[in-house]
Amino acid sequence: MQQFQLSTELCFGEDALECLERFRGQRMLLVTDPFFAENGTAQRVCVLCRGESRIFAKVRPDPPLELVAEGAAHMEEFDPEVLIALGGGSAIDCAKGMLSIARSRPFFVAIPTTSGTGSEVTSFAVLTHQGVKLPLIDPDLRPNLAILDDSLLQKLPKQLIADAGMDVIAHCVEALVAKNRSLFTQGLAVKAYHTVMELLPRSYEGDSSVRGQIHCAATIAGIAFDQAGLGACHALSHAIGGKFHLAHGKLNAVLLPHVIQLNSSCCSYSPLGNNPVFAVTRLRRRVQLPDSLTAAGLNRGELLSSADELCSAALADPCNEGNPYPMTKDAYHRLLNACL
Ligand SMILES: [Zn+2]
User: Fold this and answer.
1) Is 84 helix (H, G, I), strand (E, B) or coil?
2) Domains along the chain?
3) Based on the number of CB atoms within 10 Å of its own CB, is 5 exposed (0-12), middle (13-18) or buried (19 or more)?
4) Helix (H) or strand (E) segment spanning residue 68
5) 45, 111 in Cβ contact below 8 A?
6) Residues 73-102: pLDDT tens digits?
7) Which DSSP symbol is given to 116?
8) How far apart are the CA of 170 and the centre of ligand 1, in A?
9) Residue 57 alpha carbon to ligand 1 centre in Å
10) Strand bridging mode 9-13 / 107-112
11) What is the mean pLDDT of residues 134-156?
């Protein structure tokens, strides 16, 4: 038996934030990073809720467990009816971490401001502890409501558009062939892949009119991989990113073509077109992402001296289980060497 669950309500498009008015008068805790507290977006969300609200604005990239514990203590003390995460994957994952250790379970709303992780619809969160990425997987972490508002996407930095977009591509490609794939997840993965392939260069070059569609595609890819699983690209990307703190999407951009080649011996990527390796490398060039780990700024010697640790971490990562080609530590060593 296979299952496909639909659990997060989606509000999307222009003025989607107005759906927050349904929480009028409720006690609300907003989790975000300092940028959105300073530019007024956090206050805009609080005003729409019109109730007692507090802002926890300490989120930073790769949220560490200590920060999550601090946020959870804040949540216990305030006891909100609604928990809202506003920001990129780090803010949403930090809020998920808080939920996983708090005693209460407020209504959970995710408002993504980047179009990449899909965390607004998934049961996954990635936290960090002493240089190691800790994936949390629990269906209870899926937000009750995700708000995809076009107005939050107008001023995205170019680098973030490229990194996040390539993360979506990696989610689609890995979900398409992952162990728990089904017709439902494949349909979603293929649609999201072609949407981002077509529109990402335009968004990267400054056309903000396509960003709403890419934002939806990122969420669609999230629904797909949440249920299908991911694979070796994400397993090794988590291992390298935990140790060397390089943007997740940038790492995926380097690793993904090699993982497609590796898996092609045991599965078909034909719904993505004739030559997905060529398509992914061409997109990578158009959005000016690196084609190797050293081109991404990592040190070859440091990577080689950490190779054993990285490959062990990749093998132990939950995403590894989804990969169609049966990965071994040697296979990860070959993959890492090919990406140097
Ligand atoms: Zn990812």
Assistant:
1) strand
2) 9-153 (3.40.50.1970), 158-339 (1.20.1090.10)
3) exposed
4) helix 65-78
5) yes
6) 999 999 999 999 999 999 999 999 999 999
7) S
8) 7
9) 24
10) unpaired
11) 94
